[in-house]
Amino acid sequence: MEVAWLLETLKSENASMNKRDFLKTSAAALGAALLPKGGWAITGQQKIRTAHIGVGGMGMEDLKAIASHPQVVVSALCDVDQKALAKAQELFPNAKTFTDYRKMYASFSEGIDAVVVSTPDHTHAPASLLGMEQNKPVYCQKPLTHHVTEARAMKKMAAEKNLITQMGIQVHSFYDYKLATQMIQGGVIGKVHTVRAWSNKNWGFDGPAPKGNDPVPEHLDWNLWLGTAAERPYKENYYHPANWRKLVDFGCGTLGDMGVHIFDTPYNALALDVPKTIKNNCRKPNGFGYAESNKVTYTFGQTPYTTETLTWIWEDGYKAPRKNKAMRLPNNDQLPDQGALFYGEKGTLLLPHFMQLPKLIVDGKYQEYDIEKYDPENTLGEPIRNYATESPKHYHQFIDACLGKASCSAPFSYASRLTETILLGVIAGRFPNKTLHWDTEKALFEESEANQYLEGVNRSF
Ligand SMILES: NC(=O)c1ccc[n+]([C@@H]2O[C@H](COP(=O)([O-])OP(=O)(O)OC[C@H]3O[C@@H](n4cnc5c(N)ncnc54)[C@H](O)[C@@H]3O)[C@@H](O)[C@H]2O)c1
Questions:
Q1: Number of structural domains the chain divides into
Q2: Ligand 1 centroid, distance to 119 Cα (angstroms)
Q3: Ligand 1 test: best mutation among 10, 62, 118, most atoms within 8 Å of CB?
Q4: Mean pLDDT across the stretch 5-19?
Q5: What is the pTM of this model?
Q6: How far apart are CA 412 and CA 419, in angstroms?
Q7: Is 426 found in the same domain as 300?
Q8: Which domain range does residue 47 map to?
């Protein structure tokens, strides 16, 4: 992606220059100027002043979890919905409030040490990149971005500026997921040849794009909500709040919503890079909403924990594999609604989503295992089956990293790879049942018709 173009678009409200003019005149020079060298570090500081972009929905959870760290001061709140903003301000009356994150960065940069981005997916990259450009560490919700080019740009800028970053996959820091990672890497089932992962949730939408428009509620700035996405009329119940995740221009369907969480442990445990081939068996695309059910098959190259190739099958919605005979569990137990199965040379590991111990299956029977063997130094501590106490760990790790006391376990270097994998499956949904070949060096599909979906429109707004 032309990051320089996006950043320039974000800085000049209602910029009149179009993308082509901009690229013709100044891309290379500006690109270099906007990416100054130099890292970022806060050491010896007592408090981290946080800015929160998107404070309704999950943003409110993120706000409370970050603020529960004793060394955090919430200094800025930003939301395009005045109702969401007012609720957050009730909790943090001393924080400055903003509607436009560009204005927040332009006028209050010196009051912010770190940024939390909890907006809909299409705004993750614009809101994060602008903060990163100002050397701010960023905690960004999952999936990291809406487009592959954005994920790569986020990773690049984080690396070039040596920034502390974390993606909002809080279960990454939960006991059972860490234990499963240690078991797989400790060889509990030998080398893994297949992963199956699933969710019975359905963030698809098969209706037509709505006609006409509804009055924009007074408390919502629709232009800012759309941000860099293409302009369109406001319609109630289609977009804001939450329903945007069903729609191709703003979210990533079930794969991007639940897939990121459920992919995370097998992806991390097997030390995977991006896939080589991707096929999505789903209904014909309608250009507006995602399919209600997807079966995505990926192949990956070998890693120290896999056989020569690894096959990965994701199923969601009504295709979630409840009745799949090949996935039958001992004692005729029902598959959990969401989870992952690792198939290895010596057995199978089931990881339910979530807050349950992994289950080891050998020769069709559950087998006891000795946790100490996989966690000899008790680095994982005791399992805590309480979301409210487990969940803040991932957020606190980010703040501790900002204070120089920890490092992040889901930084953008990792999150961008995982997100790219998810997004390639999402793009494959545009070409049902066709195998796409991904060239990671070139960051292009061999099937050139798919490359148009790697980048967004980057509207000036
Ligand atoms: N990690 C998790 O468990 C988890 C759970 C739910 C959602 N999420 C993620 O959190 C993000 C938000 O999801 P949600 O369900 O809360 O959505 P939502 O639509 O309910 O809330 C989004 C909030 O962001 C605000 N917003 C939208 N555009 C904005 C902009 N340009 N600037 C500032 N504020 C803006 C909205 O007004 C709203 O308050 C998504 O990326 C989603 O994937 C993560």
A1: 2
A2: 4
A3: 118
A4: 55
A5: 0.94
A6: 10
A7: yes
A8: 3-171
